[in-house]
Amino acid sequence: MRYGVLSDVHGNLHALAAVLVALAEHDVDLNLCAGDLVGYGPHPDECVALLAGAGVICVAGNHDRMAVGQLGERHAGVLARDTLAWTRQTMSARTRGFLEGLPGAALVEDVMVAHGSPDDVEEYVRDPERAGELLSGLPPDASFLVLGHTHHQWAVGSRRGTVLSRSTGVVELPAEERHLLNPGSVGQSRDGDALARYLVLDTTVGTADFRAVPYDVAGSDAALRQAGLPVRGLNSTNHSVRELALGARRRVRARVGRSAVG
User: Fold this and answer.
1) Which long-range contacts link 232-235 to residues 24+ away (Cβ below 8 Å)?
2) According to the 3-state scheme, what is the secondary structure of 180-246?
3) pTM, whole model, 2 decimals?
4) Residues 16-50: pLDDT tens digits?
């Protein structure tokens, strides 16, 4: 199977359209999305309609859950809360219904898809040790774990550890290993550029091709201004200091919790 894998669209229609055009050229069998369809960006309805119409298999991200009231905003920064308030007021009933029906995780053949982690939509999985824990906990028939949320491209093997980080390129996926794959963000780059990221996973030949494509950034910025949303809501290279602090505290609590259980 050849999968197109994307995540963290965040209502950025211009970026999503560019990625879907690129994926069509890869002759993929199926597209997967690891959540955060909305939030930050000015086109929640259009992005959801485009993904649904293309038959993309999607799971819920934390922004999707917060947008429909299924998750509180205690861990959200000011920018996230402000743009989510706009999203809730603006999105259609059809979009709301679609987001409400998204699962927290999906197993497609031998690929498990989730947003933060299979058990916690808000967890930032960034270290190889945690990746190894999650890979060892996959169902017996799963060989790949696709996650989003961090907005950074990453590939981790259960034996080799990190094999790609914050870059494009082709990664070999030996059959004797399980792999965690993060395609990076379609709609909100945090890598210091304005590129839409995705990957092509070929489970038959055993490769993950991490890619990034340009898109109409000027059009995206104009749409943000027209909606009355801050332009920094998309293509932000970093969270605010408050958001970084919240993420750090959450990671510490998660490690303490795992130690207590162990």
Assistant:
1) 232/79, 233/40, 233/41, 233/79, 233/83, 233/188, 234/10, 234/12, 234/15, 234/40, 234/41, 234/187, 234/188, 235/188, 235/189, 235/193, 235/194
2) EEEECCCCCCCCCCCCEEEEEEECCCCEEEEEEECCCHHHHHHHHHHHCCCHHHCCCCCCCHHHHHH
3) 0.89
4) 999 999 999 999 999 999 999 999 999 999 999 99
